[in-house]
Amino acid sequence: MSATVMVGVLVAAGVYLLLRPGQLRVVLGFVLLGHAVNVVLLAAGGLDRRTTALEEVGPQTADPLPQAFVLTAIVITFGITIHLLGLLRRRGGPEPTATGGSAGPGAAGDPAAPGRADPGGRADDTRPTGEPS
């Protein structure tokens, strides 16, 4: 499979997932777009037209700069993926139901949900200053 076809498929699938509802699909779309960028950078290096840097040093030696760019792009893509998955996890709970409510944690009547008032009348994530923990 040529690099252009591979990049086209990865970009098309990534954009499709970005445009679909659901945060996990957005994360997967960003991952696919990151892979497409990596393939573009590797193809720009022309590895199929040159020899590897370990065999010999000369005018036909592969340029290490695109390879360094790909390694940097992999690290950046990994960091963005972890950040987006962290945001997804922090949001928690399922998507809202058709009636507009949420059927998961934090739904109305869930006493364990963060930010709900305790029997004393104050929210459990706030504490007056000066009160020992």
TrEMBL record:
Composition-biased stretches (Low complexity): 108-117
Name of the featured protein: Cation:proton antiporter
Keyword tags: Cell membrane, Membrane, Transmembrane, Transmembrane helix
Basic and acidic residues bias (residue ranges): 119-133
The organism's taxonomic lineage, starting at the top: Bacteria, Bacillati, Actinomycetota, Actinomycetes, Micromonosporales
Stretches that traverse the bilayer: 26-47, 67-88
Annotated GO CC locations: plasma membrane
Compartments where located: Cell membrane
Keyword Nucleotide-binding set for record: no
Organism of this sequence: Micromonospora radicis
Similarity field: Belongs to the CPA3 antiporters (TC 2.A.63) subunit C family.
Pfam families: Oxidored_q2
Region (Disordered): 91-133
Membrane topology summary: Multi-pass membrane protein
Record keyword NADP present: no
